[in-house]
Write a structure and sequence with these properties.
Elements lengths: L8 H19 L1 H20 L9 H4 L2 E7 L2 H13 L3 E7 L7 E7 L3 H6 L3 E7 L7 H11 L7 H11 L10 H15 L4 E5 H10 L1 H7 L8 E4 L4 H10 L20 E6 L3 E7 L6 E6 L3 E6 L5 H21 L3 H8 L7 H6 L5 E5 L16 H6 L3 E5 L8 H11 L6 H24 L6 H20 L5
Parallel strand pairs: 1-4, 5-8
Antiparallel strand pairs: 1-6, 2-3, 3-4, 7-10, 8-9, 11-12
Helix pairs in contact: 1-2, 1-8, 2-11, 4-7, 7-8, 9-10, 12-13, 12-16
The protein binds 2-oxoadipic acid (OOG) and nickel (II) ion.
2-oxoadipic acid binds next to strand 1 and strand 4.
Length: 469
């Protein structure tokens, strides 16, 4: 078992998320409280199964996602370069214009099975699109303030430049350099209670959109939440309420099921924090800003395109139904989702969920009589292969808000449908712009799951000496 080098991307990512989590715990004590609460809930769930936290896969212990909002294209490009050093690459395109935010972005995350197993840390990263700011004066104000911001220290830029010219065989960077990379990186995500602009500017930007003020008025791109993963989000939600945390009313995403799919999330509401704005006397002007919150999530299986379509359709149906019938939203969701199969075998056979296939250890050496091509179902039935659902590693930021949009135009005039199509066209164009900016393609998350599944099938074929499964 070899020690990782200080510049091993997986190792850097793990160091980084630990440091970030510590920093956020110190900045937002309620986050620390939530992490502890999640640990307690998970521990008692495991206890009831006769297990403990250490029985979980190691990734589970430090599994998190974070979110940041950047101001300029240069910042986005630089963050892409930094995250690449930590083994995080863009996956999935999210056009937040769909929900009325002048932002678009991607999730930076590990892409390989091995990296994901070590530590799946992901950062939902968006960047401001000044063209979507409706007031020319505000647009000008925002771009001009951002044009002088230095998110990345000179030291960090130097380290990134240096690291990029290094290959695994010619590592010229020291452990100390790796330490600096972490320290300097944290500065990007740190909270500053001192705004770089006067209160008046802040309020003008906020009138355009609270997100614009949040992005433009601070010297850093403060992390706005950091989200631990739990085994049972309903228990966490109940416990948050019991402990008097300012929890949101309901859990987003699919209803509770036997076979969890995609992502279920809840949060506590953003804190109103004291901010000192520039100007006035030396001391500045007192004000507040509301942006940072705490979130928790439960991750289920990655679904196929067909599985996602069924999910989106049922969710839209549930929203319409609960509006029309004025019934409890959770009850309606459960009722509508009865249509979504809830046993792994059906989910697999109907190709709704992605699976990772494996050859049983005692069958690797051969000793079976199959030749040529055999159906996977047969291998599973005979116990030669096993399968497990692939975990969903991505985000669902539109699952609630997107439905809203689809209710705006009404169903009769068809106008709404045309509008959405146009947005899709535009989205395609802006996705390409983001790819050009990052200098990398942004694969769709579904394609990556598809690849993981088919790679696992190929692995089985090779190990069993079959030509096709
Ligand atoms: C978007 C955050 C999206 C999630 O869990 O869907 C996200 C933002 O507010 O910047 O983190
Ligand atoms: Ni989140």
């Amino acid at each position: 078992h070899e020690e990782p080098t200080p510049w091993d991307p997986d190792h850097l990512r793990t160091r980084f998320v630990r440091a970030l989590s510590d920093m956020y715990r110190a900045e937002v004590p309620l986050y620390g409280k939530l992490v502890d609460l999640v640990n307690n809930v998970d521990t008692s769930i495991l206890q009831s199964r006769g297990q403990s936290l250490s029985d979980l896969p190691s990734r589970f212990q430090l599994e998190r996602h974070g979110a940041i909002r950047l101001g300029t294209q240069q910042e986005m490009r630089m963050i892409g370069r930094l995250f690449a050093l930590m083994g995080m690459y863009p996956v999935g395109y999210y056009d937040l214009k769909m929900v009325g935010f002048p932002l678009h972005g991607t999730a930076f995350r590990p892409r390989t099975e091995e990296s994901l197993r070590k530590n799946p840390f992901r950062v939902f990263t968006t960047v401001l699109r000044p063209k979507l700011i409706s007031s020319p004066a505000v647009r000008e104000m925002a771009t001009s303030i951002l044009s002088t911001r230095q998110l990345f220290s000179a030291k960090l830029v130097e380290l990134i430049d240096h690291a990029e010219t290094t290959t695994p065989d010619s590592v010229k960077l020291t452990t100390q350099d790796a330490d600096s990379l972490i320290t300097e990186s944290l500065k990007i995500f740190k909270w500053h209670s001192r705004s770089s602009v006067p209160l008046e500017t802040y309020l003008t930007l906020k009138t355009e959109h609270p997100m614009v003020a949040d992005i433009v008025c601070f010297p850093s791109a403060h992390i706005n939440h950091l989200t631990p993963r739990t085994l049972d989000i309903d228990a966490v939600q109940a416990e948050m309420i019991a402990q008097g945390l300012p929890a949101k009313e309901c859990i987003e995403g699919p209803p509770r099921r036997k076979c969890e799919i995609l992502l279920r999330q809840t949060s506590f509401k953003a804190l109103e924090e004291r901010v000192i704005f520039a100007g006035g006397a030396e001391q500045g002007v007192d004000g507040t800003h509301t942006a940072r919150f705490g979130e928790v999530e439960q991750r289920g299986a990655a679904v196929t395109r067909k599985g996602r379509e069924l999910y989106d359709t049922l969710l839209a149906k549930a929203v319409r139904k609960s509006e029309r019938e004025d019934k409890d939203a959770d009850a309606v969701l459960k009722e509508v989702f009865a249509e979504y199969p809830d046993d792994w075998e059906t989910l697999r056979k109907e190709e709704l969920v992605y699976f990772r296939y494996r050859v049983a250890e005692d069958k690797m050496a051969g000793g079976h009589n199959w030749k040529g091509s055999v159906h996977m179902d047969t291998l599973l039935k005979e116990g030669v292969a096993s399968c497990e659902p692939i975990t969903y590693e991505d985000f669902l930021p539109f699952s609630a808000a997107g439905i809203f949009t689809s209710n705006l135009g009404g169903e009769k005039d068809g106008g709404h449908e045309r509008k959405l199509q146009r947005t899709e066209e535009e989205s395609k164009r802006s996705r390409v712009q983001l790819e050009e900016l990052l200098g990398r393609t942004i694969p769709s998350e579904i394609d990556l799951y598809d690849e993981l599944q088919s790679d696992s099938v190929k692995e089985c074929e090779t190990l069993l000496g079959l030509s096709q499964i």
